[in-house]
Specification:
The protein has about 400 residues and is α/β, with parallel strands linked by helices. Strands 3-2-1-4-5-6-7 form a seven-stranded parallel sheet, with helices on both faces. The protein has a six-stranded parallel sheet with strand order 10-9-8-11-12-13, sandwiched between helices. The longest helix has 17 residues.
């Protein structure tokens, strides 16, 4: 059996697939413990996994108060968090450390872990490489503005780790952009979070009215009541039924839903997508890949995270939907939804993409990458234990 600790950033597009990979590893007999900020702990434990709160997660937030997302970058790039990770890893003595690819504080101290490191990226790699360099340059600048020493570049933070695993299809990721030998492509990990529950819709199953799934981010820093309300108002004037999931970051009571809308905090998106005709989302890799796996076209309205704008642009490039700007007005949203719903070619192209997503099990492929760093004896012991 292998002991694995996972230094995690808890964005919905990061935590959910991480939990799916952890489940695959535990099914093989390994032990996985997540390390992260307090916002993460309850969600991990609700999924039946082990979570350890990093006590230093908020120590440096004041130093980053000049930035509107201090709660994000004051955790992700904090030297105090990096030092605590070193202490926790030393205490736990893991066989492998897994680090979220955006967690620069953890990546910066990874060479000192004394254990091999697997870096997990839950979205595109090659396709977004220019953007990733800008993202880490920004984290480096913010860290220095906060009064701390800078960070090395991606060639060190990502390229020098034992495994860099990309949870997306290589065929979707464009041409290779580096000569790194540690990069492994898998497939999207479309794990549903434990809070996602089956929703009993108020409309008859035989009702032919198209259903639109409206779902934005589950990250508190990206919650936008205004955007949700604009989207609801836009869809309220179309001949559709709307299921809107507010993701726990917007209180449904703060919204004024139109008569054709049903609001829930969380929902099983797979079950809803089996009945839906369109997804209106924020351009997250997980939601986008899940929609395409169901052959559904998409209207993408990006939030603030780094990969969402290029992913919504990719929706347009692949002609599986329409991309709108962050500040899209009600008329733009309504027009895009109406176009995608009435033009069958968007759905046809989405269904073409779905065939590539039908077979690969992203969680198992990622678990293979992590397991490749374990000693053969640990893998053998885990395999024997899991089979008894």
């Amino acid at each position: 059996m292998g002991r694995i600790v996972w230094a995690c950033w808890d964005g919905g597009g990061n935590l959910n697939p991480s939990l799916g990979i952890a489940e695959a590893l535990e099914d093989r007999g390994h032990e996985v413990h997540f390390l992260g900020r307090p916002e993460m702990v309850g969600r991990v434990q609700a999924a039946g996994r082990s979570a350890i709160e990093l006590a230093e997660a908020r120590t440096d937030l004041d130093r980053y108060s000049f930035h509107p997302m201090a709660s994000v970058f004051g955790y992700m790039s904090s030297p105090a968090v990096g030092e605590e990770l070193l202490r926790v890893v030393a205490d736990r003595a893991p066989d492998v450390v897994v680090v979220d690819a955006l967690f620069s504080a953890a990546l910066n101290v990874a060479p000192q872990f004394g254990a091999p490191t697997a870096v997990m990226l839950h979205t595109f790699f090659d396709r977004l490489m220019p953007m990733w360099h800008m993202v880490f340059a920004m984290q480096n600048d913010l860290r220095q503005q906060a009064g701390f020493c800078g960070l090395p570049g991606l060639d060190a933070l990502w390229g020098e780790r034992e495994v860099f695993h990309v949870n997306t299809l290589e065929a979707f990721d464009g041409d290779a952009t580096t000569t790194w030998t540690n990069v492994v492509h898998g497939a999207p990990v479309l794990t549903s979070e434990g809070r996602a529950a089956f929703v009993d819709l108020p409309w008859d199953a035989e009702d032919p009215t198209p259903i639109v799934l409206l779902s934005f981010s589950t990250v508190s820093e990206q919650g936008s009541r205004e955007m949700l309300q604009r989207a609801l108002d836009a869809l309220g004037e179309l001949p559709v039924h709307v299921v809107a999931t507010t993701g726990g970051v917007v209180d449904p009571g703060e919204l004024s839903p139109p008569e054709n809308a049903h609001l829930v905090p969380f929902a099983d998106h797979d079950a809803l997508m089996e009945r839906a005709s369109l997804v209106v989302g924020h351009g997250g890799h997980g939601t986008t890949m899940r929609a395409l796996s169901h052959g559904l076209p998409i209207v993408g309205i990006p939030a603030m995270m780094s990969d969402q704008v290029p992913i919504t642009q990719l929706i347009e490039e692949w002609k599986v939907g329409r991309a709108l700007p962050l500040d899209a007005e009600m008329t733009q949203i309504r027009s895009a939804a109406q176009e995608v719903l009435t033009d069958p070619t968007f759905g046809e192209r989405a269904r073409e993409r779905s065939s590539a997503l039908a077979e690969p099990d992203g969680a198992q492929l990622a678990a293979d990458s992590v397991e490749s760093l374990l000693q053969p004896s640990a893998v053998q012991a885990a395999t024997v234990g899991a089979s008894t």
